[in-house]
């Protein structure tokens, strides 16, 4: 039978939906991680001269503050996505990210205006926190709802593919700048370049996302009723799922930020690699990590989500201390790369499927809010503070304490994975329910 265009929007152009959700997510996370990647260059620009680790602690503190805005962004933009649509939320978040990147690009330095420059940096990070707090949920919900039920794990894995590509672009640009500009120029003004690129990229994605189709699941809910959509009152009916998302996120987010954003600093500050070598290791390791996501996502579509989560939890709990200890004593780029890839293989058990797992736990009327708020809270408490905690332990002369902290967080999440229900077969829209009934949690 010829296709007369009557198929659901989510089925007509699945790859367009994946690309539209992912490319914006890529730019969002490029800007988010550009701050972490270039912090070693602009830390001295916004704070008085002194100990380099102390300056990094100050910039890491502002990095963490951005995370504490994510619950606010998760609440506001999650509610917005459940009431106005996934597409509308995706467009709004990328607009906010463009503004925040532009603010960092033009922020005055300590030498020019004193601590006022750090104030501009702080405001930009607050806007980034709001934006990313909503972006994760809108993107995870959109990618999951727009996918065929048998391919949700595979399709939603592109969220972390796009996040990783954003990091790779940032790291790639950093390597280009490191090799094409004098060190003094990078510290003086070169660090502003990636934020200009991010602001322009976000503006381009704004127009791309305007052409996205809304998901079938949201359109069904929108036609059924507007009452209670995206409200905290409706979310309270799903307290167990709320706490479940926080617990399953805890270990994953700490491990993820340890082996991605903090890895470059760890290899240069603790292992003694040069900054350019540390950046190269991160770039190559993340390239492998990016390729692993769709394969692991597809595997979860066959065997379920829980086996991958359990493998991550056990691997991170048992492997973190020996891996970070070994990374601290590497003597070559090859050794650092091998250990970094091993760590990221373990982390893939969480990153490749966490988006769809969380979306599969909630009904459509509170799905974006249900994903956004507990995830953002867990990130604020554990992910956003991971780098700060690591540097605090280092500054206190007890760096191995951080290794045990990461392993302990993974242990808590492992208990959650062992006791939670399988979510792979959850129905997200009417067509997936027996008899065509509306989907429910």
From TrEMBL:
Give the membrane topology, semicolon-separated if more than one: Multi-pass membrane protein
Q: What is its main location?
A: membrane
Species of provenance: Sphaerisporangium rufum
Q: What does this protein do?
A: May be a proton symporter involved in the uptake of osmolytes such as proline and glycine betaine.
Recorded superkingdom:
Bacteria
Instruction: Give every Major facilitator superfamily (MFS) profile domain span.
Output: 17-424
Gene Ontology terms, cellular component aspect? plasma membrane
**Where does this polypeptide localize?**
Cell membrane
Q: What is this protein called?
A: Putative proline/betaine transporter
Q: Which residues cross the membrane?
A: 59-77, 89-107, 113-137, 158-177, 189-208, 242-259, 279-296, 308-330, 336-357, 369-390, 402-420
Signal peptide as annotated in the record: none
Matching entries from CDD domains are given as: MFS_KgtP (cd17367)
Single GO molecular function? symporter activity
A Pfam family reported for this protein in Swiss-Prot or TrEMBL? MFS_1
């Amino acid at each position: 039978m010829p296709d007369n265009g009557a198929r659901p929007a989510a089925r007509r152009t699945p790859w367009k939906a994946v690309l539209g959700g992912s490319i914006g997510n890529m730019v969002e996370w490029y800007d988010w991680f550009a701050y972490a990647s270039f912090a070693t260059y602009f830390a001295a620009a916004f704070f008085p001269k002194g100990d380099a680790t102390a300056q990094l602690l100050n910039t890491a503190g502002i990095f963490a503050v951005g995370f504490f805005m994510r619950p606010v962004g998760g609440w506001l933009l999650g509610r917005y996505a459940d009431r106005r649509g996934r597409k509308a939320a995706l467009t709004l978040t990328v607009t906010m990210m463009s503004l925040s990147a532009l603010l960092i690009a033009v922020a005055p330095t300590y030498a020019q205006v004193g601590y006022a420059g750090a104030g501009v940096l702080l405001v930009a990070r607050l806007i980034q926190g709001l934006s990313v707090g909503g972006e994760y949920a809108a993107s995870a919900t959109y990618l999951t709802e727009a996918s065929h039920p048998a391919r949700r794990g595979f399709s939603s894995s592109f969220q972390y593919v796009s996040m990783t590509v954003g990091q790779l672009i940032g790291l790639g640009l950093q390597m280009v700048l490191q090799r094409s500009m004098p060190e003094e120029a990078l510290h003086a003004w070169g660090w502003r370049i990636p934020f200009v690129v991010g602001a322009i990229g976000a503006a381009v994605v704004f127009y791309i996302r305007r052409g996205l189709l809304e998901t079938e699941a949201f359109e069904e809910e929108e036609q059924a009723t507007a009452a209670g959509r995206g409200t905290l009152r409706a979310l309270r009916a799903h307290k167990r799922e709320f706490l479940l998302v926080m617990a399953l996120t805890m270990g994953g987010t700490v491990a993820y930020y340890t082996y991605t954003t903090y890895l470059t600093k760890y290899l240069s500050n603790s292992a003694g690699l040069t900054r350019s070598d540390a950046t190269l290791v991160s770039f190559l390791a993340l390239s492998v990590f990016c390729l692993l996501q769709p394969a692991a996502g597809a595997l979860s579509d066959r065997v379920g989500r829980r086996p991958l989560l359990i493998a991550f939890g056990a691997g991170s709990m048992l492997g973190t201390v020996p891996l970070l200890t070994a990374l601290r004593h590497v003597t070559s780029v090859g050794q650092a790369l091998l250990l970094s890839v091993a760590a990221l293989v373990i982390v893939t058990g969480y990153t490749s499927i966490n988006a769809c797992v969380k979306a599969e736990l909630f009904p459509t009327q509170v799905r974006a809010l249900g994903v956004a708020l507990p995830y953002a809270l867990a990130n604020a408490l554990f992910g956003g503070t991971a780098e700060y905690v690591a540097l605090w332990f280092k500054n206190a002369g007890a760096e191995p304490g951080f290794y045990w902290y990461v392993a302990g967080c993974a242990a808590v999440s492992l208990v959650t994975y062992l006791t939670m229900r399988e979510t792979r077969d959850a129905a997200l829209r009417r067509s997936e329910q027996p008899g065509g009934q509306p989907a429910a949690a």
